[in-house]
Structure formats: C-alpha cells, structure tokens
Description:
The chain is an alpha+beta fold. The protein has 3 domains: 6-65, no CATH class; 71-236, no CATH class; 241-268, no CATH class. It has helices spanning 34-37, 46-65, 76-89, 92-95, 127-131, 221-236, 245-254, 262-266; strands at 71-75, 100-107, 112-120, 138-144, 176-182, 206-209. The protein has a 6-stranded antiparallel sheet. The termini are far apart. The model has no long low-confidence stretch (mean pLDDT 91). Residues 30-31, 44-47 line the site of flavin-adenine dinucleotide (FAD).
Amino acid sequence: MEKNLGRIKKYPKIRYDYQSFDYDHLYFAGTLIHSIDFRKSSGGFIHGFRYITRALHRIFEYCYHQQKWPSISLSWFSLTNYLIKRINEADGIYQMFGQLVDVILIDRINRQCRYLEEYPVRLLPRLEEITGYTSDNLLILNMQYGMNYSGAGRDVFAFDRISASVDTADRSNFLHPVLYYYDSPLQEKDFDNVKSGFLPLTSSVRIHHIIENVLTLWMHPDEHILPLRIFLENILNINLEQRTVISYARKRMLQKKLTIPVQFYAAI
Ligand SMILES: Cc1cc2nc3c(=O)[nH]c(=O)nc-3n(C[C@H](O)[C@H](O)[C@H](O)COP(=O)(O)OP(=O)(O)OC[C@H]3O[C@@H](n4cnc5c(N)ncnc54)[C@H](O)[C@@H]3O)c2cc1C
C-alpha cells in the first residue's frame, strides 16, 4: 500500500473520499484519515475523526445503497435563522474546521434551499456524485481561522489579534464562520493552490466573514445577524426582513395607512 512521504509517512496515502490511494473500495476510518488534514484540523483525534466517520457512512449510503445525503429543505426566509442556529450549535464543522462544511443549494426558481450538513470540503467538485444533489448556486459555511493566525514566528498574543469591529470582520483571527457563495459548481482545478482549510477564490465568489467571538457566541443582532441577513439579501436579491402581523401593523400605523380591522388587531 502506498505511503505518504515526509512528515506524514506514518499515514497511508488516501483519497479525499477516504478511499485507499491504490485499492478501490478499501476505505480508512479513525485516526488514519488524519492523512488528509495533518496539522490542519482535528482528524488525528477522536473528537475530530468521529465526524469524518459519520461523513464516511453518508458517502457509503449513496455510493452503495442509493440513499442521498441527509438534508432539509428551507424557505429563503428561514435561512438566516437556520444559519445562526448552525453557526452557534454545529459540532462537526466546528471540530473539523476547514475540512467539513455545511452546503446550501440555492433554488432560485422556488425561493427554496436545500441544507446539507458536514460535507467534506475537498469533495465539493464531486457534490452530485457523492450526495445525489446539485445546484448551480452554492452557499458554503466554513469555520476558519485567520490566514496568518499561527505558525512559526507568529505572535498569537499580538495586541491586534482580535478584530475590533464588524467592518474588519474579515481580519478575524480566531475560529469564526465564513460564508462563500458561488454561482457555478466548483471544479477540481479550482482547489489548485488553495491553502488547506480555505475555499477557492473563483472570479465570481462572494464572501462574508462573521466577526470572531472568543466565546463562540454569534447571536448579536447588529454584529452577527444583521450583516448576515444583508449578505444573504445581496446574493438572493430579496428583502429578508421578517414580518410578523405585529411588526406589519406597527409599520402601517407609522405610515398612517392602517387597514387591519381593529377587532383583528385587538385579538392578537
Ligand atoms: C496520550 C494520548 C492522549 C490522547 N488524548 C486524546 C483526547 O483527549 N481526545 C481525543 O479525541 N483524542 C486523544 N488522543 C488520540 C486518540 O487516542 C486516537 O486518535 C485514537 O485512539 C485513535 O483511534 P483509532 O481507532 O483510529 O486507532 P487506534 O486506537 O490506534 O487503534 C488501532 C488498532 O489497530 C491495531 N493494529 C495496528 N496494526 C495492526 C495490524 N497490522 N493488524 C491488526 N491490528 C493492528 C492496534 O493494535 C490498535 O488496537 C490521544 C492519544 C494519545 C496517545
């Protein structure tokens, strides 16, 4: 069996779908999958590779049993809330940062999206073959550190290590959510020269960084939720303002154009 060279020679050489490099249908699980993310993410540890094991099971389900990748369908109007929930609660994309991503397939005709969790980032060019789903419009949620946060000679305690404001969220150093929007499927060549843990910067990509938070709480209405909503509004070209009956009535009252019957409003 072919081995890696250099520092990762203790690991077998494996493909991005965790299959042996030189034997088809022979797969690896456990710490051996750290062959792919050595010193980049948490695949060498139980708290990391357990999510790869789950992804591997999902790969098998479609490859050998025609069961598509688990997903849910969402209205565009629910997407902001669902993303905020995932960003604050998701485990697999947090532990296997830069390796597993959430994939949102955007359906512009029906104003719906399909949400797939914890998908291996390097398999994005094979999305349809691996999951059974495809779309020309992809939104990817990746958890990533700042590009030059750590490394030889870096001062991880530098005074400016924490990004100060929403305007400079793209300079966040600590692990933070980043959304990438693509208007065409990703190709294998798009990943050429892309640093592990990051996604390709194609000519059409649009990127949104949600500012880092050292407590990993991304729930602030102005710092986290509103900028996310504005990003989604820009890529979807729609107003995603949430309208309840009360907020609608309040707005109409402010405009002095209230047409809702008083009995109806009083019953709320
Ligand atoms: C000191 C230490 C502390 C750690 N702390 C943590 C922690 O806090 N949190 C965490 O998530 N991870 C931790 N880890 C890492 C974690 O323990 C390993 O990643 C995990 O145990 C690997 O599990 P595995 O089943 O993939 O491999 P292993 O547990 O290594 O199992 C491989 C098995 O294969 C057997 N084997 C090997 N070669 C052959 C062969 N040719 N034929 C048959 N059998 C063979 C071995 O005997 C072994 O039983 C720690 C590791 C160490 C060493």
